[in-house]
């Protein structure tokens, strides 16, 4: 293997809990809410699927089905889908819905999985190209920079920047071209079989991880090093 493509949410990074998400926004906006009301509202937001990177909607409203299906094809569609779901939950101030959406795009809302840095660093040391291929509606590069992982990524291929979302092979093709990588020598790592599994149509090998909370998944990425054959191989000369 000469290249590895990674999904973002649920693979390299995990979004904060829904309760933490709401609690942070309430603190930032100084909107009062009792503890019981906060917990209840957080639960309702989770059921609604209002947090990007969090749980999917338990029941997708018919009026949002169309935008939900293509939500990662543009920044506007992404915001419309998630704020639409959020607004199905009554909050003490309507402005909180947009504040919640803004919060999820900040680096402090995301935590890298404990083994992410080790795996990315090791791939870089062995000269393996690394790409991030994400269905997303906003620029995640600042998240990688803030957490010190940007130096290990050679290419970012984000659905909203290309108007196409996984599993469409075209998005994976962009990543392969950016890395000058052959599909047969590329591994795709993700948490979604329907989305990330699309890389298999091009001939890439695919490996799946579970999108557990970061504290509950300390080493699920480590097998990637064995799969690409670098776990026991001496590091390549440092890139200039």
From TrEMBL:
Keywords, in A-Z order: Hydrolase
GO MF annotations in UniProt: hydrolase activity
Signal peptide boundaries: none
Transmembrane region(s): none
Top-rank lineage group of the source organism: Bacteria
Official protein name in the record: Hydrolase
Organism: Streptomyces fuscichromogenes
Taxonomic lineage from the root: Bacteria, Bacillati, Actinomycetota, Actinomycetes, Kitasatosporales
């Amino acid at each position: 293997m000469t290249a590895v493509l990674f999904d973002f949410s649920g693979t390299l990074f995990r979004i904060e809990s829904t309760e933490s998400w709401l609690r942070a926004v309430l603190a930032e906006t100084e909107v009062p809410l009792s503890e019981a009301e906060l917990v209840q509202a957080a639960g309702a937001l989770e059921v609604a699927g209002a947090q990007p990177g969090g749980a999917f909607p338990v029941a997708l409203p018919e009026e949002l089905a169309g935008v939900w299906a293509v939500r990662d094809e543009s920044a506007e569609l992404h915001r419309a889908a998630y704020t639409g779901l959020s607004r199905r939950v009554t909050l003490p101030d309507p402005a909180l819905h947009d504040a919640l959406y803004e919060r999820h795009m900040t680096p402090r809302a995301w935590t890298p999985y404990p083994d992410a840095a080790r795996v990315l660093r090791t791939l870089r040391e062995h000269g393996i190209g690394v790409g991030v291929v994400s269905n997303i509606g906003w620029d995640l590069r600042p998240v990688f920079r803030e957490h010190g992982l940007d130096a290990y990524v050679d290419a970012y291929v984000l659905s909203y920047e290309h108007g196409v979302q996984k599993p469409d092979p075209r998005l994976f093709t962009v990543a392969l071209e950016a890395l000058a990588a052959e599909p047969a020598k590329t591994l795709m790592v993700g948490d979604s079989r329907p989305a990330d599994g699309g890389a298999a149509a091009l001939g890439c090998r695919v490996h799946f991880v579970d999108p557990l909370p970061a504290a509950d998944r300390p080493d699920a990425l480590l097998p990637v090093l064995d799969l690409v054959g670098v776990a026991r191989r001496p590091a390549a000369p440092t890139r200039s």
